[in-house]
Amino acid sequence: MGDLLTTVVVVVLGVGGLLAVLGGLYWLTKLLPGRWTERGRVFVFLFPALFLMIIGLVVPALRTIYTSFLDNNGKKFIGFDNYTEIFNTPNTRLTVINSLTWVLLGTVITVVVGLTIARFADGMRGEKTAKSLIFIPGAISLVGAGIIWRFVYAGPPVKVGLLNAITNAIPGLPVSMGGDGQRNWLIERGFGPLNPPESAPGFNSFLLIVIFIWASTGFATVVFSAAMKGVPDSLVEAARVDGATRRQAFYKVTLPYIRATIVTVATTTTIAGLKAFDIVAATTGGNFGTSTIANEFYRVYFVQSRSGFGSALAVLIFILVVPVVVINRRAQARAEEMMGA
Amino acid sequence: MSDVTAPVGEPMGRSVSAALTSRVGKWMVYLLVILWTIPTFGTLISSFRPEIDVKTTGWWTFFKDPNFTLNNYQRVLSSSPGEDNMGHFFLNSVRITVPATILSVGIALFAAYAFSWMKFKGRDWLFVAVISLLMVPLQMALVPLLRLFTGGAHIGSVTIFPDLGLANTIPAVWIAHICFGLPFCIFILYNFVSRLPSEIIEAARVDGAGHLTVFIKLIVPLSVPAIASLCIFQFMYIWNDYLVGKVFGGAGENVPVVAKLAEVSGTRGQSYHLLTASGMIAMIVPICVFFALQRYFVRGLLAGAVKG
User: Fold this and answer.
1) How far off is chain A from B291, nearest CA to CA, in Å?
2) Which of A41, A233, A267, A292 has the least CB density, counted as fewest CB within 10 Å?
3) CB–CB of A42 and B118 under 8 A?
4) Contacts of B305 in chain A (CB under 8 A)
5) ipTM of the complex
6) pTM for the whole thing?
7) Residue of A57, A236, A332 best to disrupt the B interface, most CBs of B under 10 A
8) Which domains does chain B have, with CATH numbers?
9) Which are the contacts of B187, defined by CB distance < 8 A and separation ≥ 6?
10) Hey, how many other C-beta atoms are within 10 angstroms of the C-beta on B200?
């Protein structure tokens, strides 16, 4: 506990010192001539944030873009070679395909399940408890989520996996689908008749995506639920009076009304999917064809020390994030126009 | 699927939302809730089972043959040599998360005020630039920032940023989290602070209050709801982070509990009994924070996701 106390002292002194410096600078702006007083004050308010974002985000991001055009020693300019290598190396290409699968499946299923729960939990008995329980996985770290799911997917030599126990109990299930309860779910890539080639995502990747969906649904549900409660009752009622069934009212009134929210949740989930690293690292470590771009970035950069190639992978994540955000902004703007807001 | 008629005196809204709840849908929700809860529940049960049980039988056998022990927790919290003392890494997480949360929210609040209520040339484009930083993935900034901590920055022989010797220290993790979190924090706080009623703030300014006075006496107290929910959000985010803690905390004693958990999961992958207890230790804080402060946390989520 001794070093915890030291930390407290350091933090109090650090924060106090920072505030004292800023306060002092602010006071000094009084001494500046005329208009410069106001400019000085703007500077005092903005400087800490801008400084940290410049040294921590702007300059590093530009540097990474620059490094992505250099060889792995950071010496020679090699143009787009690192980028072409991403798509010419079968293993790396698979990580890109895996990531896109994460984004597509993960986002679509998260949004659909989230909407379903938000829709049917609304007004039901135990609504709060249900939503809290759905949310818990979202409060846990993705590393923790990976550990929790290892108990579901565990296979031989250990006999503790829940999924194996379930498939074992289903009579007549073929061995290729875990019928003997002896399947290594995270290692085997095929599943029943499904036999993906080396260049395509295996069934084990889908099992990792399940963890991602499990972890993201809570957030989606809570946000959708709040948005649905914001739909004016008069709108739904008017549709019902006009003879719409509850189902029709949901699809024709509620869903369009909360469109902007759906787009936002889809965007957030997509970006989280593109950055998927923790789940992969804590379960398969990216082996057995389950790696994603973010996981590959870590392996290439920190394990293999290939700075050029690693930088190109980081920039690739950025390149994939930008259009998602732009589409989000466009959809938001359109939704706002429709709502007359 | 029978229509529910509203009892006299009940607001109409209730009857509509109640009518929307169909029976099938309700059972679907119950089923999903069970599916969503089982994995965590199983891990919790496992963490209290003896090593031999955890390794040979599934956690559900606990109900047939209950053997309860605290040994797993004792082992992962002991500081005897050869054992990973998760307690130490748990405290690391506290030391990383609390200051990084306070500092990122505090610094962002100053910036949010400047963008909302101070007039200066280029304010709008500067704000747009800050918001576009939300798109920059962590991965792009990771290594160059780490380099800055290990060797400083130099152009030729001129040092433009000194080597502060921060690599693999807890302050390095703070700074990284603050840098990476600022665009989000500024965005959220700006949404709130800029919508405070301008009459109050302008009245105070006309009465001769300076920016600092307005900031301390008006902005901070009025923004408490936004500050609280953002703090909870940042706290959970930083506590649950793995990548930043691992990269900036190094491989030694300064990594947060989540990063240690991932490491243990790799090196002791088959020690299932220890993994469960370690996992629970890493999860307990965010789960408690979530349940205790649920309302504020959810409000924070909504501030980020729902415009309004």
Assistant:
1) 8
2) A233
3) yes
4) 219, 223, 261, 264-265, 268
5) 0.90
6) 0.90
7) A57
8) 12-77 (no CATH), 86-305 (1.10.3720.10)
9) B130, B131, B134, B304
10) 12
